Fold each of these.
Amino acid sequence: MTFAPYQAAPPDLLRAQSFPPEPVPGLAPSANIGYGGQTAGERVNAYETALPIRLDILSALCYLFPPVTGVAILLLEYSNDYVRFHAYQSAMVGFAILALHFFFSFSSFLSYTILALNIGALAFLGYRAYSDSETLERYEVPAIGTLANQWLETE
């Protein structure tokens, strides 16, 4: 039986044979196979995100209005570790910035100086998140980045 005039054999014979995925220990056999025959917990692509935004743009958006955008992206993005790392780091950097501004609010000169430094630091972090997304290399702020990495690993 031919399905089209240009096919010499049925599609089942032309299709490459693949082995079934290995089961994940601790899961029921029906829960192991996901959409497209992937096993549970297997990521198809490290560059995929749960939101319909590219990885590089989403990771740079974390630093737009910290800590608000960092917390919002943490709540919405659940599948990509690269974006979640930058969201954690952005939220912690944002809270540190707010604490600095609160502590130095008595002096307008110091407040504006810290504001200029914060804008420069956030622009640098956003640029690094955007440019390093091709290799998924994480730029860590010295104390905060290691804590963000630890929190990400414990999830």
Note: The chain has two domains: 1-42, 47-154.
Amino acid sequence: MSDSVQDRDALLDAFRNAMRHVAATVYAVTTRHEGKAYGILATAVSSLSFDPPSLLVCINRSASLHDPLLAERKFCVNVLGLGNRHVAQHFMNPAAPDRFSVGEWQDFHGVPMLADGQSSFVCDLVHAHEFGTHTIVIGELVAAQHRQDATPLTYFDRNYIDISEAPERDQS
């Protein structure tokens, strides 16, 4: 392989194809602004720090959640479990009139929380930084809850997969 720089289209295509093969947990990021619930699916979420406990979330600036989240400055990162696949599929449907009509949603610290999700993290927005098409949001933890019996919903190569059934790897 040559060390020459790929042209922009080839580079973007190579990046998309490579990222399709990185397994990622599926999250529903939610907020409430002026009485209305907003939410998107995301895979670009990461723990940032344990002190203070915080998360990093990347949100496309064209997403319906983006401006309400920045205005409200409070959000919830809901980790979807295998049992929440129907929620993920409903969130992905652009024709769905209300993303929150599917799933067991409840108010938790003023934001929508998926009651039967694997985990939920409510955060106050403490920093936002624009980069490319996205805003990198840093949230400091306000509250969290976790279900012991849930396996995360994982996205890989444009499909949801069950990582609890992944074959064991030879340790030798």
Note: The first strand starts at residue 24 and ends at 25.
Amino acid sequence: MVWTPRVTVAAIIERDGAFLMIEEHTNDGVRLSQPAGHLEPGESLVEAAIRETMEETAHPFTPSGWMGTYLWCIGSDPRRDDTYLRFTFVGSVGEPCNRALDPDVVRAFWITADELRARRPEHRSPLVMRCIDDYLAMQASGNGWLPLSTQHTEPFSAAAR
């Protein structure tokens, strides 16, 4: 068996003390999450975050920094259970576009960290609140996030395969 983590991206978007979140249908019912999703073939991590935010919120996302990388295993054996490697970006959004959201998304909405914390049983994963708490801690400490220039994607080439 080959172990392959699932590579995902997420966007942390804060405006006036509230965070842009989504409610979406999952196998466990309707859950809350940041705009997030899987990296697709041929994309950079930044491109994936921009695409996923548009698909799930209808807002154009402008990333301004890279917040961190998170590893989460569902289950107790990472060799057999699902493992997610999440790259999290921060940024801002423009006004929503007139487009349908992904079929599983119920709605996109703004919520404060305290309101989100009170709804912890509805979170899609433990990464939802962890990323918000990390964002707030970085903001409070003044340490901030890494510049987007620290993310590198080599051009795709047949010779590299």
Note: Strands lie at 6-15, 18-26, 29-33, 36-38, 61-73, 83-93, 105-112.
Amino acid sequence: MANSVTITVPQDYGYVIAVLVAIYLQQNVVFVIGVVQARMKTGIKAPSFYPRDDEIKKLKLSAAQVEDYMYAQRVHQNNMELMSFFLPVFLIAGLHNPANVANAGAVVVLFRFIYGLAPWKSTLRKVSGLFHVAEYYILFQAGSFAYHLLNGQAQ
């Protein structure tokens, strides 16, 4: 039988859950609103993620309209792709160091918000890539948690 480790969920883990709620709302409210607005302006209907050339021609969309729609859709899609692997790591790392991981998660939320709302190709949007610094810190915390678990030093 393998050794077992007891993990106590610290009270500070509530901050991790609060950031999780912020991430959820950002993705499923803020970024979805951008896509809905872009669909309404262009006439591109779901389930199309990206309009085909014949659809663009039929709707008589300008290159600028297509670019605006694509940007809104890509923000939403890119964030969904990121969150599919980020959220489990975030929640696990939060068990090890909840306050610091929650703070790093809040930084991720902030910079992803900037990414989502900054104009395409703007300097502000380029700065949004700094979310990776906080993301790597969270990954480090998850690795540290794994190390402590493997050495029987769980909190």
Note: Residues 13-147 form a domain with the Four Helix Bundle (Hemerythrin (Met), subunit A) fold (CATH 1.20.120.550).
